[in-house]
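[stage:ingest] chain + small molecule (CU(I)-S-MO(VI)(=O)OH cluster)
[stage:ingest] validated
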Amino acid sequence: MNEMSPPTAERAAALKGLGSERKRVEDARFTQGKGNYVDDLKLPGMLFGDFVRSPYAHARIKSIDAEAAKALPGVVAVLTAEDLAPLGLHWMPTLAGDKQMVLADGKVLFQGQEVAFVVAEDRYIAADAVELIEVDYEELPVVTDPFKAQADDAPVLREDLDGNMEGAHGPRRHHNHIFTWEQGDKEATDTVIGSADVVAEEMIYYHRTHPCPLETCGCVASMDKVNGKLTVHGTFQAPHAVRTVASLISGIAEHNIRIISPDIGGGFGNKVGVYPGYICSIVASIVTGVPVKWVEDRMDNLMATAFARDYWMQGKIAATKDGKITGLWCHVTADHGAFDACADPTKFPAGFFNICTGSYDIPTAYLAVDGVYTNKAPGGVAYRCSFRVTEAAYFIERMIEVLAIKLGMDAAELRAKNFIKADQFPYRSALGWEYDSGNYQPAWDKALKAVGYDDLRKEQAERVEAFKRGETRKLLGIGLTFFTEIVGAGPVKNCDILGLGMFDSCEIRIHPTGSAIARLGTISQGQGHATTFAQILASETGIPADDITIEEGDTDTAPYGLGTYGSRSTPVAGAATAMAGRKIRAKAQMIAAYLLEVHDDDVEWDVDRFVVKGAPERFKTMKEIAFASYNQAIPGVEPGLEAVSYYDPPNMTYPFGAYICVMEIDADTGEWSIRQFYALDDCGTRINPMIIEGQVHGGVTEALAIAMGQEIAYDEIGNVKTGTLMDFFIPTAWETPHYTTDHTVTPSPHHPIGAKGVGESPNVGGVPAFSNAVHDAFRPFGLVQAHMPHDHWRIWKIAHDLGLHG
Ligand code: MCN
Ligand code: CUM
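[stage:predict] done
[stage:export] tokens:
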């Protein structure tokens, strides 16, 4: 006989399901130094690889002399392009349909490019051997400016493409041109802009930066020649895709390749692409027959792996006199560096930049993006970017400010006037997206009220007067942002990477005693998946989250999935998890009804059990059902309780948010301090509010870094000027302000639990909030547009150029 159930609320709380501030289960091992990162892996006989990298940004390689290096005791092998060429591995395909040199093939195209790979008995010998390799370079003219790269007489960078005027994304019109991508209606937009009351035009530059994860990229490749099995442990954000690509380029059958992503110390998009280090380690392991480890140092990582942004965005925005936006025109010059290695869905060479109409109902728009080669490192899609959404949000949120100046209007009011209204969702934008849901005005009102917007404006006006009277040297900036994200790539009908549809997956196995393991096609890099995905399952299956193990990252055991980036884990794998949970529950219902000797329809779900309708004392708990499924299964029904779901979402999800930054700026020193930062996020149903807050704190801090100082800067001959943490700004606790987080909840109508992604939102919304605060402080003195990063010197320069230094 069953006893009476404890109250529903009590049982629900015990599950730690949706909405619970469940503590991160990962942290017990991380905080005790028991994480298991790639560099912690030590295999018997393991060798170490290191690269000879180019000191030049553009040079021909006349010769490579590795004799002295090979003679160094402990050096096992030195690989150059010549060694890889017979295997067809001296070049590799990029995720963007371009190809990239694995090791310099006749020339180098950016500083830090991989030239030769040394394999030695330890890391130090490998580094010493790198120094002994003599490379004879002949310098070539360098181009680091994407506009100069398109001049008729610009040096030819990609000689391998010589005369090839058809690229992966259509025709190329110049030897350094990669693609043109157009969206929207050009003619209609020209007409609207030509006849508008007011047009604001501006060049908005989002500078080149770098995700700089604490753990750099690396791998351990291990070829087991006896079994013919290749195992690669690595810092991979998309392990299954790596397996498929590795199989295609190496010719090793896919079932004989096992990719394992262990704990990852931050990815931020830096670990999506395929790097020469992976290929060289694999080849070296095949050649030597022992495992080979390669792990970047900080300079390697900053100079050669996936950078972020570098978008020159020319914009025109048209409006009526009273501020109703009528059209948006945008032309982007996208600096992709030496190879197009952007990790975008294949059909989107500029990612989802066509969300650049933002949160506004803009009836007419046109967008063109030109990708260009320069002598810089490849990459471009990384750093909490949501596939270029961060550039798009920066663009529109700057253009709105510029338009507000032109109209002489308050920028908060201009935004509100143009929001897509709640009853317009689902909303089809002029550039092609269908926004699934949104409710902007209440979020905006809440944000403005929370910071006391009207009072802030009054204070700012008083401050300006005081400044003019010479009573203060401090200015006050109010940085506004309202952003709309697009995450959850995505529908297989329009999103694939190299032909692999971007679905995701979850496989659940319930054990006889009622605990469970679930495996997913995604991989956490710090986002806390082991905590949150168990919460989804707890709510769906009635098994406490604490009794569910979440496993990701081993391609031998996890179901196929496209990995974690683009904040897609919750929208796609999270949906798969809920759907798989529902399959478990459907079978559990049959078993419960069978055991209770009633019809399936006569039992109902109650938190963690099925109860006979109208007879609450008669029920079967999930625990009982699990055990029964391994024993008195229903005749004719398979024993066990397992389910798998491969989920192809019908649409992306569209999280949004309102961020406001209040900043004090010293006009004489360019120093800034953040007085207040308010971040309101709407990511639909919230799985774990504490994890969301952590994501927002981290992402806003990265946004602060990007807006206020961080950059990958090159000099005119292509030297990386910011290749170490001496020059590359990483905020510490000292620079990081207090953040106030807030939320509204607008569930996604198509996601099984209504959740939208959140991982990248704080970067998407944060950067324009900080940058707009700087601009806003100087708006009363005539500033319209100043490029990021807003470091002390550049802010000082703004004040200087506006004549504020007397
Ligand atoms: N979450 C939630 N409720 C929601 C949405 C999300 O509780 N409605 C939780 C999720 O369950 C998950 C976390 O928030 O634990 C982030 O979920 P999601 O937004 O789906 O993003 P992903 O898990 O796909 O993570 C990718 C995203 C990206 S693309 C970058 S870049 C980034 C980011 O996450 N890199 C990170 N945040 C990071 N955080 C850390 N610590 N390290 C990184 O490398
Ligand atoms: Cu674009 S950075 Mo995240 O998608 O890994």
